[in-house]
Structures are given as C-alpha cells and as structure tokens.
Design goal:
It contains 5 helices and 5 strands; from the N terminus they run βαβαβαβαβα. Helix 1 links the parallel strand 1 and strand 2. Helix 1 packs across helix 5 and helix 2 packs parallel to helix 3. The protein is globular and about 35 Å long. It starts with a strand and ends with a helix. It comes from Chroococcidiopsis thermalis (strain PCC 7203). InterPro entries: Bact_response_regulator (IPR050595), CheY-like_superfamily (IPR011006), Sig_transdc_resp-reg_receiver (IPR001789). This is Response regulator receiver protein. Keywords: Phosphoprotein.
C-alpha cells in the first residue's frame, strides 16, 4: 500500500480527501495541518507522494515545496499542488518549479485517487 501525505490547513478538505483516497484502497493517508508540520511528517514518514495546498497561513504551499526540495530526505518525493488558483500566470509559475502536477480545487473526489496514480506513473517515466 502506498502512503500519501496531505498538507492542508482546512480540516474539512483534509478529511474529505483522506476518505476519498482511503476508499480507493490504494492509499494509506497521513495528514498535516500546516507547512511546518508537513515538513516534519514528510521527513520522518517518507510518503510516496505529497498533496500540498497552495494557500495556507504562516508558510504557504510554494514555500513549503521549496523547503521540501531543499531537504535531502524529502527532495525526491513527488509533490502535487492543490490550488483554487488556476490563472495562466500562476500555472506558469507552477510549471517553473518542479512539482509533479497541479490539481485544481474543487476537484472530483471520486477521480482523485486515479489522478494521483496517473501523476506518479508519469513522474517515474
């Protein structure tokens, strides 16, 4: 079973996403409510992938991503950004950093596990 870490400051989104991924039967889900907590969990638990919310207080998703990239224990974990922002300029910004993918909120909870699976297959090739 693969492990995924959800880093999102909104508890209802964390819980809904966790349920969707656990129902698929493919994922063991870890959660963190802040970028700082996510960094610690990612380093200690070594998940197969990270779902990272872009808009968070204190440390936003892009800052969290940069810190994940800078740490030897977490730099090779594929990161998928979750964002409500899908403006072309922001999409370009996301393309410039080495994220595995960007999934736009609101996402379809029933296809999320499959979307993540496709991203990880692409990341390996």
């Amino acid at each position: 079973m693969k492990r995924i870490l959800i880093i999102d400051d909104e508890q209802d989104i964390r819980e809904a996403t966790q349920i969707c991924l656990e129902i698929s039967g493919e994922w063991e889900v870890l959660t963190a409510s802040s970028g700082a907590e996510g960094l610690v969990t990612a380093a200690s638990e070594q998940p197969d992938a990270i779902l990272l919310d872009v808009m968070m207080p204190d440390m936003d998703g892009l800052t969290t991503f940069q810190k994940l990239q800078a740490h030897p224990l977490t730099q090779n974990i594929p990161v998928i950004l979750l964002t409500a922002k899908a403006q072309p300029a922001e999409q370009r910004q996301f393309t410039q950093i080495q994220v595995a993918a960007v999934i736009t909120k609101p996402y379809d909870p029933f296809t999320l596990a499959n979307q993540i699976e496709q991203v990880l297959i692409a990341a390996k090739s």
